[in-house]
Amino acid sequence: MQRFFNWCFELEFYLKIAITCTMVQQIFYFLFKNIEFNFITQVLLYWLIGSISFYAIGFFIEKFIKSKDNLTKKLTARVNKVKKQSFPAFTLKGIITGEIKSLIAALIILYLAPEVHRDNNLLLNFGWFLMRIVAADFCFYVVHRLFHTKSFLKIHIKHHEFKDTSSFVAGHKSLMEYIIVTITDVLPILIFGYDITQLCAWTLIGNIYNLEGHSSLSIFFIPSNFHDLHHTGFNGNYGIHGFWDRVFNTLNPINKKPGIMFPVSLIEYKTMKLFGKRLNR
């Protein structure tokens, strides 16, 4: 029974991404349906939404949620205590460099990927996002696991300067890692094509789960210690979520945080409690 709940828990993540992205895409569609975007304006829109949402969401998590001790305690399920570290301060040079990289990445992605108009068709958009997250998770898993081999570790080691993770550690990586991860992000779009409203929704939700995954908190998408265990243990938990780690047997056991935002975990908690079984997987 617990194995069944484990797989449901992983699939819940994919469904959350697909559903929330579809909802956000509908908003972008109604905002932009009467506007004609050429290639350059599409690139600028994609870049701006990605950059603004990255900083806004990151600061919201770090400065608002984490400033409330009772909320932080409620949302965390950290297993391994780590020594607190100071994180790099934001500098004008660092921000400009990061935005130049983001703009170039947006330019490359939209230049290479085929544009397909799906308008506000709920079924087509839901299917696109569902395939997109499963494929993106697989591509990230493969590349991330390769980064932890001796041949490629030097590319990835900058990201692991921090064991005490913070939201903005999500963007702390070497230039080579940034390029490789961007290429893996392009691959699913090359397969499935893109609609600009889909990309806007994807980059917004993608920033949310990426920043949450590095925040040590279980807010909506990712269990708080899934990526914690990767940083503290330096192996396993290579995916965005645990599906492919479970498939390839590289999953470090995590504490599922039951709650309304994680319905499968809540159902499992009540079921296992009823049968007197342990909660941890």
TrEMBL record:
Q: Which terms in the GO cellular component ontology are assigned? A: membrane
- UniProt-recorded Gene Ontology molecular function terms: iron ion binding; oxidoreductase activity
The segment(s) forming the Fatty acid hydroxylase domain are 130-250
Q: Where is the signal peptide?
A: none
What are the record keywords, sorted? Membrane, Transmembrane, Transmembrane helix
Please give a single GO biological process term from the UniProt record: lipid biosynthetic process
Q: What highest taxon heads this organism's lineage?
A: Bacteria
Compartment annotation: Membrane
Segments crossing the lipid bilayer: 12-32, 44-65, 86-113, 125-143
Q: Which PANTHER family match?
A: STEROL DESATURASE
Q: What is this protein called?
A: Desaturase
Q: Which organism is it from?
A: Nodularia spumigena CENA596
